[in-house]
Amino acid sequence: MRTPLVSAIAFALAGLSAVAVAAPADDTSQLATTQLPRSVRPTHYDVSVVPHADKLAFDGKVAIGIDVLEPTASITLNAVDMTFAHVTLVPAKGKAKFTAPKVAIDADAQTVTFTFDHAVPAGGYTLSMDYTGKIGTQANGLFAIDYDTKADGKKRALYTQFENSDARRFVPSWDEPAYKATFTLSATVPSNQMAVSNMPAASKKDLGNGLTKVSFQPSPKMSTYLLFFGLGEFDRATTKSDGVEIGVITQKGLTSQAQFTLDTGKAVLQEYNAYFGVPYPLPKLDNIASPGSSQFFSAMENWGAIYTFEYALLLDPSISTQSDKQEVFNTAAHEMAHQWFGDLVTMRWWDDLWLNEGFASWLASRTTERLHPEWHTNLEAVFIREAAMSRDAVATTHPVVQHVATVEQASQAFDSITYSKGESVIRMLEAYVGADTWQKGVQAYIKAHAYSNTVSDDLWKEIDAAAGKPVSTIAHDFTLQPGIPLVRVESVSCANGSTTLKLTQGEFTRDRPEKKALAWHVPVIAKTVGGTPSSTLLSDGTGTLTVAGCTPVLVNAGQTGYYRTLYAPAQIKALQGAFAKLDPIDQLGLTADVWALGMGGLQPASDVLDLIKAAPLDATPLLWDGIASDFSTLDDYYQGDTKRQAALRKYAISRLSPKFEQVGWEAKPGEEAPVAVLRAHLIGTLAHLGDAKVIAEARRRYETNTMPAELRKSILAVVASHADAATWDKLHAEAKAEKTPLVKDRLYALLGTTEDEALAKRALDLALTDEPGATNSAGMISAVSRAHPELAFDFAVAHKDTVDHFVDSTSSARYYPMLAGGSLDLSTIDKIKAFADKYIAATSRRDAETSIANIRYRAMVRKERLPAIDAWLKKNG
């Protein structure tokens, strides 16, 4: 899982051509993408490792049960950074051995090939070998995290991260999702440390000399990327849920910060057992909390051993916020959803990654809403949809189901289309067929494909059967082609107490207006303000819909649809007048559509300001969250144009300040959770807009150390972004002295957020040293890029050999272009192109091209849309 962020996990293989051949699943007549020969498949791995944490290396032994499907003189599997010895092949029946094979390592392909002196007949065998491997310092393969402790100095822990293709760094393997097998794992470890894997320990043997051999129970049949091993000075807290032991594993002394995750795990497991109709099949489910961070993911769904960075799993009473609490719940719910969607049933190849990520995101959102209705997270469906549409509206988008030919391309698939569009499409389809029918189809899918691999059509088959109608027709439109439908309300006429809408369908795009529009079957729900919803399926590009009442009409009522709605000016004016009467989710959805369509040139860009002006002070806090974000984004577009920016800031502060005065600096007894989230957001936004009072109060609270835990992050962020040299030095000293990793990591990231360019350069220089920690340096450079994208990009490229060590595996194809994506300078485009030409495979430039598209879009908005904002401010400011 790469929670949005949206960030992605790094991958290890680039440049191999995909071929469609017989899949390694039980049904070899199925086709799957592969980068390995299909003459051999594994059935079981018996792995034994001896890690040498001090040397960043490990020794391994593996005996792999294999089926040779047709005679072959060679066996090829995946391996990275390994050396091999004592390779043997023994038939499953009989004692005959083959002569030791020749070993050929292909570092570029990340494979090892064992060639025998004569063909190996079809049949069952055990392939055994001794090998050595490397322990890294970024989250790929087996890696080390060094961290401070308050009482016992620096410590080192080991963890694994294999998705998508880094199991090959830990064990020679058929490292593709369709090659499912069972695993037994044993490890020789220091006796004073805890070893963790997917399954409970089966035995522990004292070897003397301070070492213990820990052997784990056999795993269920699963893909290689779900295997996990962890080792360190850990504590473990546990609870029980439906007969399953739920655990949270932390560095020593921190289990008190895990209670919320334990309670969450207990409740969510019960919820999922009931929802799927298939009980969680393993005896335990651990959540492993790790210091550090990655630029591309926050947690990983290893079966029975979920790996999560501390900031997304633990609640530190000195710094954690309500937003953190909600993130912890959502992350746990997402990863636990994967235990069914992804682990029990796995996509056959990365083309269908959304079957993992989109469904886990949707189910986590659904579960958060069900178990914590007081958070009002149902309204966040609009923000999730907008995250997808922002990416989906540019030419560099891709379908939800996409062809992945290389593993580097797979790394780029972990984006907002896979996660957020996938989730939004599921929400739309569930609304179309009904929640009970959708659940029935999901249950049938899980039961039919447990312990095997699937493609998207396997799911649609079950949903069609449950619904009794071809839902797959809609599903194919929204998953097999990219883009966003645009539903135009061509006319509205009222007669006899009902309103009839004439609708047409086109495509919303930000950068290709001359393109012939794609076509979708679009489920449309509409209603008059205060009325009851009516629905239709818009097909063939046109349709009509009649709704009860004659008040202003809202299309996409309830905001379950994945499309933009364009109204005529009179209709927008009517909705503006009725804005306070709309349901909160429709206030959010209408504002989001008007913003996007205005910036896209399909209606006046200033229309969004009319809606903001109409927003009542007592509207849902999430609407004010969105308004604050809109003002912040507009402010960024004015960067460098001080006079025009000042006019926007004056109006934005005048609009936000009354809400902040209502919310206040101090929490009120009994206030709702969204108010706490809004308070922190308003502090950050008003400071970003240059509100002198907010900045001064944040500084006062920092200097007098009167920062409540709930606001500590927000106050530190204001102080850091507006820091002078003395304040920056003080924050730096605090970061160096801090012994709690979760807090320390935050402080180093904040050093990069300064608006002062000279201090930003100091932060960049600091990021290249050992001081921040190996997993913090990339984040510091990213932090600088938010205010200084050109500076951060130029610096990272100039120091690429060093920066590469701070970035997860081959994710440099994503990382470097991301740094420049917020630029307003068109000349930056040439720099990104030059970087891509030199360093990124031609087949893996989607993120670079997206950054370029975003720069062009931002420059267009600045030139063509801001004049309308200026005129509105002059009239209304």
Overview of this protein structure:
- This protein is α+β, with helices and mostly antiparallel strands and 877 residues long.
- It is 40% helix and 24% strand.
- The chain is built from 26 helices and 30 strands.
- The protein has a 7-stranded mixed beta sheet with strand order 6-9-4-3-12-15-14, with no helix packed on it. It has a 5-stranded mixed beta sheet with strand order 17-18-19-21-20, with helices on one face.
- β20 (299-300) and β21 (305-309) form a beta hairpin.
- α3 packs across α6.
- The longest helix is centred in the C-terminal third of the chain and has 31 residues, at 846-876.
- Mean pLDDT is 93; it is low at 1-29.
Please give the structural blueprint:
Elements: E1 19-22, E2 31-34, E3 40-52, E4 57-68, E5 72-78, E6 83-91, E7 102-106, E8 111-120, E9 123-134, E10 141-149, E11 153-161, E12 182-190, E13 194-197, E14 201-208, E15 211-216, E16 229-232, E17 234-241, E18 244-251, H1 259-276, E19 284-290, E20 299-300, E21 305-309, H2 322-338, E22 345-347, H3 354-371, H4 381-392, H5 407-412, H6 416-433, H7 435-449, E23 452-454, H8 456-467, H9 471-479, E24 484-495, E25 498-508, E26 522-528, E27 534-538, E28 542-548, E29 553-555, E30 564-566, H10 569-577, H11 584-599, H12 607-614, H13 621-637, H14 642-663, H15 673-688, H16 692-703, H17 709-721, H18 725-737, H19 741-751, H20 757-767, H21 777-787, H22 789-798, H23 800-803, H24 812-820, H25 827-839, H26 846-876
Parallel strand pairs: 3-12, 18-19, 19-21, 22-23, 24-30
Antiparallel strand pairs: 1-2, 3-4, 4-9, 5-8, 6-9, 7-8, 10-11, 12-15, 13-16, 14-15, 17-18, 20-21, 24-25, 25-28, 26-27, 26-29
